[in-house]
Amino acid sequence: MSETMKAVDIKNGTGPADSLYINSSTPKPQPRASDALVRIKAFGLNRMDLLQREGKYPVPPQAPKTLGVEFSGIIEGFGSDADSGFKIADEVFGLAYGGAYAEYIAVSTHMLIHKPKELSWEKAAGIPETWITATQALYLIGQFSAGKSVLWHAGASSVSIAGIQLSKHDSASAIYVTAGSQEKIEFCEKELGATKGFNYHTENWADEVKKATGGKGVDIVIDFIGADYFQGNLDVAARDGRIVNLGMMGGTKLPAGVDIAAFIMKRLRFEGSSLRSRDEEYQGRLRDTLVEHALPKLKDGSFKVFVEKVFPMEEVTEAHKLMESNKTKGKIICTVS
Fold this sequence. Notes:
The longest helix is centred in the C-terminal third of the chain and has 21 residues, at 280-300. The mean pLDDT is 96. The chain starts with a strand and ends with a strand. It has helices spanning 47-53, 121-125, 128-141, 158-169, 182-192, 205-212, 227-236, 262-265, 280-300, 316-324; strands at 4-10, 20-27, 35-44, 70-78, 91-95, 104-108, 112-114, 149-152, 174-179, 196-199, 218-223, 237-245, 269-272, 307-312, 331-335. Strands 3, 4, 5, 6, 7, 14 and 15 form a seven-stranded mixed beta sheet that branches. By secondary structure, it is an alpha/beta fold. Helix 6 (205-212) packs parallel to helix 7 (227-236).
């Protein structure tokens, strides 16, 4: 058996999308005691991949240098102490600390999920990072319960697409979104069931959210933007509200004049989180929640995985450029032949 494989690599270690190439002499991973060796059929792109490619993402120490955290594939081998709930030739999908942009990945069996026959390889590869992140943000950190209202920023992003569906299914009183085009807003409202969307290019989303809520604001804000939305999030959060920060697309340095009085006046809680930096036990608990709560609905079609476009792995540069365009609705997937 060959000790090398094809994987996506980066010329000079970091760089733009054009620096990505297929390295056919990448060492094939060896499973640790609790790992499975999975032959990858498809992998999903995530915003963190763009940052890691540019050297701007804090990669966990246990992660290989190869990009990619979510995948689907077929188990080909095990370490010496792997979970007995899996066997060779099982079709699976899962979450990893890295290494998914490749023909093979060694990954803990605690982060694998049996792939239902109802899900294609491409759709299964687009589930783990996005749906687990949405679950973590909404329930564990946001403390969502029926009757609460939610604002999902970047409404047509994969995490928010999952989150909107979870919020609606579990009886949110209202679901608001922000997005950068009318097409995306209509998608969120008509396809996903969001109550109302706001175009951040053409209107002041914070003012519009306050109007839509009669001045009350929303109970939970899920944000990927960071500094640019910090004041707006404080303004639209309801009393005892929670703001969950998952990204910094709008920067990390707050401008002069930011007013933090709302933290005290409205008893707000602001919490940031990163799924990838969590330990295996924490991620495993979230995997179990996904399996119990969302997977049955993904199987029967109640919950939908929206795939914007599928590329062969050899066209990963074009896939990254598409993600960088910010024009997508849903997942970008690469297949591995």
